[in-house]
Specification:
Elements: H1 8-30, E1 34-36, H2 37-40, E2 48-50, E3 53-56, E4 59-61, H3 67-108, H4 127-136, H5 140-148, H6 152-180, H7 185-212, H8 217-237, H9 239-253, H10 255-265
Antiparallel strand pairs: 1-4, 2-3
Length: 267
């Protein structure tokens, strides 16, 4: 009897699903950090003005480093496992992200060991270094709570945006493929990502900042536009990666099995 793990489609599903889940969950937890894209690359902030909002720059959540990978995986899984496969994975991912945040809140409520509060300040460090570190992070437990105790609105916005973007991505992907057939992988993959990431950028920012923090509408809209510009650029830049992954999968599965899986995925 052949075990299920010996099946190439099953092994491919486990591999792709693992990459998808890992990147989505880690991106959520990384997302608490905001960074300057320009300064990271060694440039001055762009300081654009949009809709009367001046001084706008590419201040992004660290999660954007991984979300493009999630959207690439969405299109790859969609190609070979269809709507049911990617929707099952999306719902599972959203549930695991919610579970992860619930466990973090439980961990935040645990009473810390007394020595752990200052465990980051090592006895062998120079007194000046100890004082500098103590001034930055006096209590390890407080730092843990501040970093991982994200606003409920940020969590809700992120999860809603993720699910909306995934559902739209799947639908647009198959609509384009129904018209183009097996040709123009770039069009269905990049095109669906451009639309779904547009929704992802605006939904998460509006829920987290407009509803949650009640920032002015135009300011929230301008922040959303800056976020989408970055994601749109990344969607285009990563288009060659989609072809590379497709080629690797085709070689792994073989032409006949790959063609059969893609036909089943279209149903």
């Amino acid at each position: 009897m052949q075990y299920q793990f010996d099946s190439k489609p099953n092994r491919l599903w486990i591999f792709l699903a693992g990459i998808f889940l890992t990147n989505a969950i880690v991106a959520e937890f990384m997302g608490v950090k905001l960074f300057s894209l320009e300064k990271t690359l060694g440039f001055q902030p762009v300081n654009w003005s949009i809709m009367g909002q001046s001084g706008l720059a590419f201040t992004l959540s660290a999660g954007v480093l991984l979300w493009p990978i999630v959207f690439v995986m969405t299109d790859i899984i969609n190609e070979y496992f269809g709507r049911r496969g990617i929707r099952l994975l999306s719902y599972m991912t959203a549930g695991l992200i919610a579970y992860g945040f619930l466990m973090l809140y439980f961990a935040i409520g645990l009473e810390p060991a007394d020595f752990w509060r200052t465990a980051h300040i090592k006895p062998g460090m120079a007194p000046e270094a100890q004082e500098a570190l103590r001034a930055q992070v006096g209590d390890y437990n407080t730092a843990f709570s501040v970093v991982f105790g994200q606003s409920l609105w940020i969590i809700v916005g992120s999860l809603v945006a993720f699910l909306v973007a995934q559902v739209v991505d799947v639908d647009i992907f198959h609509r384009i493929k129904n018209v183009t057939g097996e040709n123009r992988i770039w069009l269905r993959s990049t095109g669906s990502s451009l639309v779904s990431q547009f929704l992802d950028s605006f939904v998460v920012v509006f829920i987290a900042l407009y509803i949650g923090q009640q920032l002015p509408f135009l300011q929230v809209l301008a922040i959303s536009i800056m976020s989408y510009i970055y994601k749109a650029i990344m969607a285009v830049v990563l288009t060659p990666v989609i072809y590379l992954v497709h080629g690797a999968i085709e070689r792994y599965l073989g032409h006949e099995l790959a063609a059969e899986m893609k036909r089943e995925a279209q149903r």
